[in-house]
Amino acid sequence: MAETLSCGLDVAPLYAEPDDGSEQVTQALRGEALTVEERRDGWARVTTAYGYPGWIAATALSHAAPNGWLPERRAGDPVEEARGYLGTPYLWGGMSKHGIDCSGLVHMAYRRLGVLVPRDADQQEGAAELVAEPRYGDLVTYGREHATHIAFWLGDGRILHAPGGRTVVEEAEPPTLVRRRRRYVRLAPP
User: Fold this and answer.
1) Contact 17, 28 (CB under 8 A)
2) Residues 103, 133 within the same domain
3) The whole model's pTM is what?
4) Do 99 and 57 belong together in one domain?
């Protein structure tokens, strides 16, 4: 039977397999609700409140009631929230100032406004409305068969994103990304 616990650490990695040497798929933040589906050798297979699965060290779980992981919904600008991560190093699966990836940046910008959006770029693209003419704050996705990168559109060919191997930056859309551009999309406003 599934049990809901919370993350007891400031930031806890969730892995693809019950092994801290496996790929980190995302992170849980203190107080975040985690539904435990299975336990194995000091690990727990959990699902986050936004439906993302992964393995977490059982020692990172807390029996305290989940709270504070999603603020009250409020009006605001997701781009301004994302700017709070400028200079943060890239980390695959990251969702904190310690390290963040492109879709984690989008997820956390909305989450800080109390809006829960999917975790991965392809899921974010699928949850958004397709737009022909982007405006400030829309998202631009990149990839071949599905979205593998996502960025905030700032207008005039500029984006805000977390490029692999670098830090979160605002910059002119690099030519390598322009060639892989898929579409412009808009998530529901906070």
Assistant:
1) no
2) yes
3) 0.91
4) no
Sign of CA pseudo-dihedral 46, 49, 53, 55:
negative
CA atoms within 13 A on the CB side of 169: 11
Alpha carbon 2 to its chain's center: 24
Nearest-Å Rg of the Cα atoms of the chain is 17
pLDDT, tens only, 80-127: 999 999 999 999 999 999 999 999 999 999 999 999 999 999 999 999
Token pair 């892989």 is at which residue? 180
Q: In angstroms, rounded to a whole number, what is the distance separating the alpha carbons of residues 169 and 22?
A: 28
d(CA 49, CA 40): 21
Residue 67 lies in a domain: no
Containing structural domain, residue 42: 3-62
The answer on 87 and 58 residing in a single domain is: no
Instruction: Tell me the CATH number at 157.
Output: 3.90.1720.10
